[in-house]
Amino acid sequence: MTNAEEILDSRYKFTESERQQILDWIAEGKKSPEIIELAKKAKFGAEVKPDNIWYYKRTRQEEITRIIFERDAVVTKAELAIRSVRLERLFKLAYKLEAELYTQGKLWLERFKGVNGQVLTEKMYNSPLVNDLRGVYDDIAKEVGGRVLRADVTSDEKPLKAYVGVTPDDWDETKQKPASPETSSNSVGEVDAP
């Protein structure tokens, strides 16, 4: 029996549920050694070999793609994939943190120290809780589009160089020059279009 015949013969050794499980593992992106180990743990009726996995990857690509799309559809319909649910939970968390800070008075914490047999108390700013609240505010702002990250596409993060027909003396506020016909009264340095 040739190697190709062994591969074809071995595919009939798996039950339909075992074949489906192999396809699921392939769709999850698992590698051959991991699939083989998982099949051993699941006690498949036949030994899973790398050739079997290769065969399924090549002949069942359409079915694997369908499984991936079905899983993506389930994930996108999950609760936290819905923007309004995420916002609702972020607001609840923000309200709880605010209540802890302001209502329960945990903005300042008392810290006790023992010095020379005496117990001293000192007030300490609750920065971890404030940082958590600021993080929640930041997440809310990102969700609603309040924090838009803008990339600098013009200067490649380097200072821009500009050549303007104005000398440093022209920018000196102490030396007021009368406006010339080319300049407008809008602001210093702006020139009206001809």
Entry summary:
With 194 residues, the protein is mainly α.
**Kindly, what is the distance between the CA atoms of the first and last residues, rounded to a whole number of angstroms?**
89 Å
Strand content: 5-15%
Main beta sheet: strand number and arrangement? 2 strands, antiparallel
Helix content: 40-55%
Q: What structural category do the secondary elements indicate?
A: mainly alpha
Radius of gyration: 34 Å
Report low-confidence residues grouped into runs of 5 or more: 184-194
Number of strands: 2
Strand order of the largest sheet: 1-2
* Elements, N to C (H/E): HHHHHHEEHH
Summed up, the helix count is 8
Mean pLDDT: 78
The total domain count is: 2
Dominant shape: extended
Descriptive report:
This protein is mostly helical and 194 residues long. The chain has eight helices and two strands. The chain has helices spanning 3-11, 16-27, 32-41, 50-59, 61-76, 83-103, 127-144, 168-171, and strands at residues 108-115, 118-125. The chain has a two-stranded antiparallel ribbon. Strand 1 and strand 2 (118-125) form a beta hairpin. The longest helix is centred in the middle third of the chain and has 21 residues, at 83-103. It is extended, with a radius of gyration of 34 Å. 5% of the residues are buried.
